């Protein structure tokens, strides 16, 4: 696969289609990272904090 940026001549502007494709790809990557962060980092940490706090409260009552 050839690099489309190497075909751009310096004094010409970037084609609108190419610009939209790059920005779309960047948006999709950012969205994927946000989803991964939510479900692989924040969600397990929240559940762990919730369970550890629940366990600590149970131990204090006994």
Q: Return the domain count.
A: 1
Number of helical elements: 1
Ends apart, CA distance between termini: 66 Å
* Beta-strand percent range: under 5%
Helix content: over 70%
Shape: rod-shaped
| Quantity of strands, as a count | 0
Quote the average pLDDT. 82
Name some characteristics of this structure:
mainly alpha; 62 residues; single chain; 1 helix
TL;DR of this structure?
The chain is an all-alpha fold and 62 residues long.
Q: How would you portray this structure in words?
A:
The protein has 62 residues and is an all-alpha fold. The protein has one domain (14-61). It has one helix and no strands. The protein has one helix at residues 16-61. The chain is rod-shaped, with a radius of gyration of 24 Å. The termini are far apart.
Ordered list of secondary-structure elements with their pairings:
Elements: H1 16-61
């Amino acid at each position: 696969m050839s690099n489309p940026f190497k075909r751009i001549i310096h004094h010409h502007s970037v084609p609108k289609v190419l610009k939209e494709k790059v920005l779309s790809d960047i948006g999709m990557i950012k969205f994927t990272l946000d989803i991964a962060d939510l479900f692989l980092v924040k969600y397990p940490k929240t559940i762990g904090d919730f369970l550890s706090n629940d366990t600590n409260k149970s131990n204090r009552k006994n």
